[in-house]
Amino acid sequence: MTAEVKKEIQLEVAHVLFIDIVGYSKLSINEQRAVVEELTTIVRGSDQYQKAEAAGRLIKIPAGDGMALVFYTSQEAPAQCAIEISGAIKAHPRLRVRMGVHSGPVSGVIDVNGHANLAGAGLNLAQRVMDCGDAGHILVSKHVAEDLEEYEHWRPLLHDLGTCEVKHGIRVAIANLFADEVGNPQMPKKFQALKRHRSRVRWAEAAIAVLVLVAIIAASIFVLRRPTQSTLAAPEKSIAVLPFENRSE
């Protein structure tokens, strides 16, 4: 271990909120700097952020066009923080973000400068969940949704979306978190595309089933209408010629 490492974080379960600025790469350098500063100010102003930071139970990881907030408090913390951020962003129309929440194992190191570097399934999957959304979405993994549903006040906010295929072909069950003034109630584009694909597959399967049924019916009609031959053929009429016998003598 190098001298720069202050301490090692042991593998443990954390509650992760991943935030991404949509369309960041299309902005000018000045615009990129401005939106990152706006997002940082909004995030730092949220109650959940301040409570977790004051308790020393929060790690912040910058991610270029966004950030990851790793909470070691409760599974509600990242979801509540996402709601607070979503509400505050309404006053910043040019700031378009999407967020993903997941709870899982993470580990890493913190250097002497206080910069955190984490790795693990908890962090990776939170990002994959976020990647399934569009601007305004707060998506949570099914695992997190099931934990939140234990609390009655979360149930009306959680809307099951089904599964989404993410990196390496992994399928993740996801729920959309939204209310009247926060989140995005629209179905994410990835799920819309998946729904259209499934619809086309169902129509194709139905068409194949109809064709098979028609073929079976046609074959049955052909067999029923085919003429049958009698097992015993009717004898043909014939004339018998007998030898002539002279009985006059």
Summarize the structure.
The protein is of the alpha+beta class. The protein has helices at about 30-45, 45-55, 75-90, 120-130, 140-150, 190-225; strands at about 5-20, 60, 65-70, 95-110, 115-120, 140, 160-165, 170-175.
Q: Helices, strands, pairings?
A:
Layout: E1 5-21, H1 29-44, H2 47-54, E2 58-62, E3 66-71, H3 76-89, E4 97-111, E5 116-119, H4 121-131, E6 138-141, H5 142-148, E7 158-165, E8 171-177, H6 189-225
Q: Describe it for me?
A:
This protein is of the alpha+beta class. The chain has 2 domains: 5-185, Nucleotide cyclase, GGDEF domain (Alpha-Beta Plaits); 188-224. It has 6 helices and 8 strands. Strands 1, 2, 3, 4, 5, 6, 7 and 8 form an 8-stranded mixed beta sheet that branches. A hairpin with a 5-residue loop joins strand 7 (158-165) and strand 8 (171-177). The protein starts with a strand and ends in a 24-residue tail after the last helix.
Q: What general form does the structure show?
A: elongated
Number of DSSP helices? Answer: 6
Q: Which architecture of the largest domain does the CATH hierarchy give at level 2?
A: 2-Layer Sandwich
Euclidean distance between termini CA atoms: 144 Å
The SSE order reads EHHEEHEEHEHEEH
Strand % is 25-35%
Q: CATH first level of the largest domain: which class?
A: Alpha Beta
Largest sheet: 8 strands, mixed
- How many strands in all? 8
**Average pLDDT rating:** 83
Domain count = 2
Uncertain segments: 1-7
The computed structural class is: alpha+beta
The name of the CATH superfamily of the largest domain reads: Nucleotide cyclase, GGDEF domain
Rg to the nearest angstrom? 36 Å
How is the CATH topology of the largest domain named? Alpha-Beta Plaits
Helix proportion: 25-40%
